[in-house]
Amino acid sequence: MKVSIFITCLSDAIYPQVGEAMARLLARQGIKLHFPEAQTCCGQPAFNSGYWDEARASARTLLEAFDDSDFVVSPSGSCTGMIQHYYPTLFKDDPVMLKKVHQFCGKTYEFSQFLVNVLGVTDVGAHFPHKVTYHPSCHGSRLLGIKEEPRQLLANVRGLELVDLPFAEDCCGFGGTFAVKMSDISGAMVEEKAQHVLETEAEVLVGMDMGCLMNIGGRLRYEGRPVRVMHLAELLYEGVKQEV
Amino acid sequence: MSTTFNPTTTIKERARISLNDEFLRNAVKYTTEKLRTSKKLASDELGNWEEWRERARQIRLHTIAHLDYYLSEFVKNARANGVHVHFASTAREAVDITLKIAEAKGAKSVVKSKSMVSEELHINHRLEEIGVEAIETDLGEYIIQLAGETPSHIIIPAIHKNKQQVADLFSEEAGETLPPETPILAGFARAKLREKFLEADIGMTGCNFAIAETGSMVLFSNEGNARMVSTVPKTQITYMGMERIIPSLEDLEVMATMLPRAATGQKLTVYMSAITGPRRPDDSDGPEEMHIIILDNGRSSQLGDPEFQEVLNCIRCGACLNACPVYRHVGGHTYGWVYSGPIGAVLTPRLNQDTEKWGEVAYASSLCGACYEACPVKIPLHDMLVYIRRQKVEEGHTPASERMAFKGFKYIMSNHRRFKRTVNLGRTGQKVVVRDGVITSKIGPLKGWTEYRYAPSLAEHSFRDSWRNLYAELEGSTPDMSSDVMKRLEEAKKKQGGRRHE
């Protein structure tokens, strides 16, 4: 069984620790991850901006990279959503590629989906004695229907106090190029999201998408607020590392 | 201050004005939150909300797929009921038909109940030009008419106004200072509008649903004004978008279940009227003459388009506006045309059939999908917004700098070696701007980002750079896969062919 990581361009270049945490957590389950080098980006920035030809060029690298993988696991609900929800549209006029796309969609999972729904793991044995709030990213929850998986994993972390984020389901204002193109609107959205995070008085904000976390975390630092921002995999790994 | 319809400004300019308007933002947040909460309670109480949504969607899909059939059935039955049915392919034609009726009736005054379609016509101004007074009788519409504005929400037209602002507007109209108290303000409007109802020559309404099998038009309202408008004046004119049709009364039951719950969280609106033709000899009230003007105005061009036909399924409940995090911050006038929020961002370029001029509104979305989730008939608005953006690209209406940027994206992202080299270059290049691991500089290409938050820096070693070492380390230390995990993987692999997402 070849289980591969789709790291996403963002985590690859900016947040490699997320991929490392995933690889180490999965190794504890006896899974040796593979990293097919040919992968680049899911193509979402181009797709969402309407540049579908450009998006396809990028998507092809993934289809090629993961052609012989049995499972593909990614630390992003948004990039996984792009694959699951939009690749069939992107390649609808190309029957050969479309067949590959359907296979690819079938074997691709967001990290918490893979852990909970495939491996049946809801307790990784972590201890993380902190007050934590959780932001459910839009694409993970709405495009992929991931609602309970991250919560189940967090509920089984010993010492962790999970506090509800007010208006949790509201978008943080990231939206890829939206954040730059409509910066004033996006800025207002992230300002409010950061405000809601601060209202919880949590020490840590956890999520399943580095795009959203980069946005909210960037705002919190801009305001000089010491809230730690972590990907779910990072939090879980830190929790098991301390146990060893 | 609020913006009204002004096509000479850009959406960014309009958004900036709204974002600087604390009153507007607080008023919109307050009301949309209230509506969201009520909708949630009402749909939970009803139960099986997803099944209801699917049922409503199927009715709308079926009707729109056979719109020609149901429309002609409706027209046939409405005419048999004694209604004068007119077709208008453009807003201008609808105006001309209206003015002709008004002139033939020698009308001096018109009372209107709420109609979004009539906003497409700017009918009030056109009536005033020929000396006919047109009065909005829905309280919210009355408020914005006094303010000289357009509706900023599909069902709550004055959502952006607070009590004090309403009191100021009414005081001016009353010629005396009215306190910002709801009973007093509502009392003033009621007294004032009552006079208008009694002296009006024509009553104008919109149409929530038109029932093909009976030829009836159905109105949902909360204030009772639609009943006054459709019973007191001698002549009634109803505006109806050509897609308002549903096949039967049985389908109305589903729509009557969904529309009020999705819109305001009500189980039923206070008034639901089904009007089947003008006054009959035994009727105690009703108009002597009834006209229905069926408006196309860009709608028929959605038919047969696989990407956009579903936008005609909309039942104008406004739930997508209430769920939208962008609408929440900028309100309705930012969108620049009649319809606002996510549905407006799609309808505006589509009904105007001009993506170059109107398509920029499709960028005012983070594509979070809250609109789709809120929609009682499951219109994939977040997908449609991407299709509009793609049209802009295909038609060559995006900025040259953006086209260049995505050319670069394609070059870099179509090959992992190029991607790796680009990241390495960036790492060297960023040294001049990175402080304490973040970029704070408000100049350069990241300006839009850094104005509101810090940007992260590229990691010292990318994941792909450090993978070899990590792999080697894990290779030696990873325990063997347990038979349980192996079994789970095998089971999951068998099911992979059946995994599909909407």
From TrEMBL, chain A:
GO terms for cellular component: cytosol. It comes from the Bacteria. It holds the Pfam family CCG. Residues 3-84, 132-216 form the Cysteine-rich domain. InterPro entries: Cys_rich_dom. Transmembrane segments: none annotated. GO terms for molecular function: oxidoreductase activity. This is Fe-S oxidoreductase.
